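Intended use. Records like the one below are meant for learning the mapping from a protein sequence to its folded structure. Do not use them to infer anything beyond what is encoded.
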Amino acid sequence: MREQRRLAAIVSADVAGYSRLMGRDESGTLAALKAIRQDVVDPEIAKQGGRIVKTTGDGLLLEFPSVVNAVRSALEVQTAMAGRTADIAEDRRITFRIGINLGDIIVDGGRHLRGRRQRRRPLTGDRPTWRHLHIEPRA
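Structure written out for the chain above:
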């Protein structure tokens, strides 16, 4: 059977300093993250035509049909988060790290995706790097 491949934008997001936040206030961090997902993140994913592939405690693996939609979603989330957390002390603030990768994926049964990040060598040195777009919150 021949595998089905397609181009997709894969987004990986997690909370910077999640272990520190949980160590300081487990219940408060979980409640805040749940509210942020419900009010900001999940609606924006849906608005841009994305889907949640996998979740972890503080992370998300997302798929978008277009890299433009993935970038729009990431920018909207980061902009909303900057406004939502502006009055919270920096060491208690939930801040997302978001990376975007455009690449070929293999569809497995229509539900799962298998992908490979593209590796490349930097111009100097011998450590490999990964191609991705990193979206930072606006100050």
